[in-house]
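Weekly structure sync, notes
Attendees: PL (lead), two postdocs, one rotation student
Agenda item 3: pending single-chain targets
PL asked that the sequence for the first pending target be pasted directly into the notes so everyone works from the same version. It is reproduced below exactly as submitted, 127 residues in total.
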Amino acid sequence: MVTKEELCRQIRMIYPDIGVCGIDVNADYDGEMMRWTVTLRKDGKELKTFLEPGDVEFCLLGKQCLSLAIEINQLKDSIDRMPGKTPELKRGDTVQTDVCEKAPELAEHYRMGDDDLPCDDGRSGDG
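Predicted structure, written out during the meeting:
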């Protein structure tokens, strides 16, 4: 039987940046589903994937690691694309946004690309 330490070590061999630079990896065998679960954590985000039965064993035997590598690569890409955690706001806090949020159903939405025009979605009645 493969151990979680062996699987994590193999993942780190394929992807040396995992386990470094704020990425955490963990592996657990789910006996009920009879497959491995790999969890990546980065910057407060967490994603899991299930590996197909046999993929881990084939890879650790040196036969084929392509399926394992593809799964872990997709997991890494997905966690990098995930938005970060939203900070908790307390009463009275304000949030500053970079871009004017406009209602696309209103005529003013075309101004989003024009930095010189004021942010106005038409709801204030000033336009």
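Discussion points:
- DSSP finds three helices and three strands in the chain.
- Residues 4-81 form one domain.
Action: rotation student to compare against the earlier draft before next sync.
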